[in-house]
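Figure-free illustration: sequence to structure, shown twice.
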Amino acid sequence: MTKKELRTKYKNLRKELTFDEIMNESLMIANHCIDLPIWEKTYFHLFLPIEKHKEINTEFILQILSGRDKEIVISKSNFEELSMAHYLLTDNTKIKVNDYGIPEPIDGLEVPTNKIEVVFVPLLAYDKKGNRVGYGKGFYDKFLNECKPDTIKIGLSYFDPEESIDDVLETDIKLNYCITPFGVIQF
């Protein structure tokens, strides 16, 4: 299937999820994070979920990272440049939901991308080779291209992988792992 077809398929599958399913599966995904070989790292980038799109609730992962005293980085989107700025999440960080439904920091201490060691990546679909499909604006493709080559990229998904994505580009950045409610897939 093409990225466009996969976006349609997985947006529809997500629409069918109930609040309880989202919470239970998000908790299962967070519990599987503990099994990853990432805990010697310090700087973790985490997305805050767009609730109207029924994204994985990352609050549980946030609690794990906080409990392990990790530096948590969240982003603010610039829709004119299709880019993101990254900020350290602290007790003083004020979060505001933007016009697209994305919770973002209003301001704070900016973190350069070369400091980020682990990125939890939102996605709609992915395949057995670690290719991912997002919403199609390219925010994460651009961000992941700016990261160091050894940055660990972890997708989060309610669903199993597709066999393959037909229109993968050379510039697409692959995931190292994907976590589902059923376990961790390594690529």
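We now fold a second protein in the same way, so the two outputs can be compared directly.
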Amino acid sequence: MSMGAMRFLGAAGLAVGVALAACSGDKDETGNGDGAGAGQASSSSSGGGGSSASSSSGSSSSSSSSSGGGGGGPIECAAPYTDVTKGECDLLQQDCPPGSWCDVGSKEGVTTTLCKASSGGLKDTGAECKKTSECTTGLKCLDDHCSPYCCPSNDEPCKGGICDIQVGYPSGNFAMMCSYSQACKLFEGSCPQGQACHVADQDQGLAVCDSPSGQPVEEGGKCKFRNDCGESQLCACKAADDCQCRHFCLVSSWQQKEPGKGGCLPGRTCKSWGQPALPDVGICEPDA
């Protein structure tokens, strides 16, 4: 099941947004009833051109023992992975009693963490799914994969995925979960229909296919997340609250290419992005 607004987390120093907008409703996007009204998952990546759009602030994990999707021991996390008030359990550590798992819910009108009965599913971390009941304890079906809550500083316990989906709730809170998106190459248009190729990790030069955020933005328009923008674009920020969608481009040949395929729109010039893993990739910046 594709998410309505997937926005993936970018590394520090990049220029794409990370926080997820809240959404109304009493079910999350995976079809699980939730009193907290889980909202949309969103993906944010970074681009160039300044500082990165900041993510929502949150609390780091506790050090209780883990179970279910948490793996074989306490997960140490050096970055905020949620700002949901800790209640009965810890989302990252999955420290609920056997037969239950830790999820976001609502108790006495407060969005908090609750131990919920396991669905009894058999699919493990990263497996394809259509609903959470297919996934094993501690995992939720998110963007067609069984995903755990996770730590963005070390991608645990994603098991090959990336901790870059920020799931938002109507309360304004967020929690990070793993993504297992298909890899792609900029400018090739090789993603499945309805998805677009965006850079998810500039240090490794990794680009992935993202579903749209549900808030599409034209080139030059204001954005918060990488998948607000179109094919082979990024959400480039001069400041945390000053981000626009810009095309990536090929520095060596942009004048012979079309926008979205390595070139730039009129009134834009391709300038180097300065990322060693993508040496010929630049950003189409407005002419002075």
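Summary for the second example: Confidence is low (pLDDT under 50) at residues 1-40, 43-71.
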